[in-house]
């Protein structure tokens, strides 16, 4: 059996794919450890995985009011890289699985000569064509971290998404790039009445509370039942809900999605994929222009399984989009087709098998 280390960060939707693949590898008998920010300790251990907090890396919490410079600091954190290498000295690993935007850690692992797998929890098209060409990629260049070269040097790049939805999925690809599918599970939803689930980001994005209020106001004009899950990044105290909408704190998506008709979200990859796994169309209101949320929303529009409106949209615009998606139509068939494809494969199993293949090559070398 192999010794495998996962390196993650407190970013929200990037965590479930890492933990899902890590748990699958542990079930197969491998020694698995997870390194991350201290705030992730309880969450990771609750999944039955060993956790080690970064010792000297920059302090970061998803609920903090972070600036783009803060994110550049996290993604290019050389102290995080030193923490990972120190853990590898303490207990060597056969392979390290690293979040696709933790280039500071990736750089250190590459320099240490340990094989690494890059876990892409977003569309590859966004990572390569937008992220690396935008402010974050420029930030890595300023830090003299060769991000593109690190992707090329990975033993494998594991893309945990639906290949059909990724704009890069239909074109030529590097030899180390592999689509393994979303790390989600689901069943076809069977609501007893028109029900809308609203779930925005756990990250503290500017203007998110106002967008949530506009969504609540929109639902108040429709003959639907609404459920809005609200975390610390928004705060229940900042909202006023109409009578037909129930505001709740954190609730696992698996408990709610089988009973709803559609989802209103921010375009987070994880939330979108698990909604599709339940055959649900999605209305996307992107919360940040620098992230992949708009690309995710547009991919749903292109596939016929969702709609995309700006986070500044008025309640009347949101209400019209919800009224369309909550009803029967071609969008429901499109979402169901994508859902069936997601359920037909196991992203956790395929991801684990790819990581195993890298570890096996290391052992045979």
From TrEMBL:
Keywords: Transferase
GO biological process: antibiotic biosynthetic process
InterPro entries attached to this UniProt entry: EryCIII-like_C (IPR010610), Glycosyltransferase_28 (IPR050426), UDP_glucos_trans (IPR002213)
KW rRNA processing (keyword) present: no
Gene3D superfamilies in the record: Glycogen Phosphorylase B
GO molecular function: hexosyltransferase activity; UDP-glycosyltransferase activity
Domain Erythromycin biosynthesis protein CIII-like C-terminal: 214-341
One matching Pfam family: EryCIII-like_C
Listed PANTHER family: STEROL 3-BETA-GLUCOSYLTRANSFERASE (PTHR48050), STEROL 3-BETA-GLUCOSYLTRANSFERASE UGT80A2 (PTHR48050:SF13)
UniProt-recorded name of the protein: Glycosyltransferase
Organism: Nocardioides zhouii
């Amino acid at each position: 059996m192999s010794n495998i280390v996962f390196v993650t960060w407190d970013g929200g939707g990037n965590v479930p794919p890492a933990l899902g693949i890590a748990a699958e590898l542990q079930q197969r008998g491998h020694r698995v450890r997870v390194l991350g920010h201290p705030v992730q300790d309880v969450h990771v251990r609750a999944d039955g995985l060993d956790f080690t907090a970064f010792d000297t890396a920059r302090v970061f919490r998803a609920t903090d009011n972070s600036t783009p410079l803060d994110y550049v600091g996290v993604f290019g954190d050389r102290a995080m890289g030193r923490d990972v290498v120190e853990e590898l000295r303490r207990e060597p690993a056969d392979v390290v699985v690293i979040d696709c935007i933790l280039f500071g850690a990736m750089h250190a692992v590459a320099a240490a000569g340990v094989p690494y797998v890059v876990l892409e929890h977003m569309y590859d098209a966004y990572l390569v064509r937008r992220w690396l060409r935008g402010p974050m990629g420029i930030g890595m260049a300023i830090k003299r971290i060769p991000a593109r070269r690190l992707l090329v040097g990975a033993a494998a790049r594991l893309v945990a998404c639906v290949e059909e939805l990724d704009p890069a999925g239909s074109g030529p690809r590097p030899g180390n790039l592999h689509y393994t599918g979303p790390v989600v599970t689901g069943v076809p939803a069977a609501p007893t009445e028109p029900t809308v689930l609203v779930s925005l980001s756990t990250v503290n994005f500017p203007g998110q509370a106002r967008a949530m209020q506009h969504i609540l106001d929109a639902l108040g004009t429709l003959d639907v039942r609404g459920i809005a899950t609200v975390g610390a990044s928004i705060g229940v105290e900042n909202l006023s809900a109409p009578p037909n909408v129930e505001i709740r704190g954190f609730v696992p998506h698996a408990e709610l999605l089988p009973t709803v008709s559609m989802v209103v979200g921010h375009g987070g990859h994880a939330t979108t994929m698990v909604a599709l796994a339940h055959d649900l169309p999605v209305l996307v209101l992107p919360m940040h222009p620098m992230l992949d949320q708009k690309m995710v929303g547009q991919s749903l529009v292109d596939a016929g399984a969702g709609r995309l409106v700006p986070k500044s949209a008025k309640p009347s615009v949101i209400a019209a989009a919800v009224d369309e998606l909550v009803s029967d139509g071609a969008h429901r068939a499109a979402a169901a087709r994508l859902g069936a494809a997601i359920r037909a494969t196991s992203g956790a199993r395929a991801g684990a098998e790819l990581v195993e293949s890298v570890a096996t090559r290391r052992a045979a070398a």
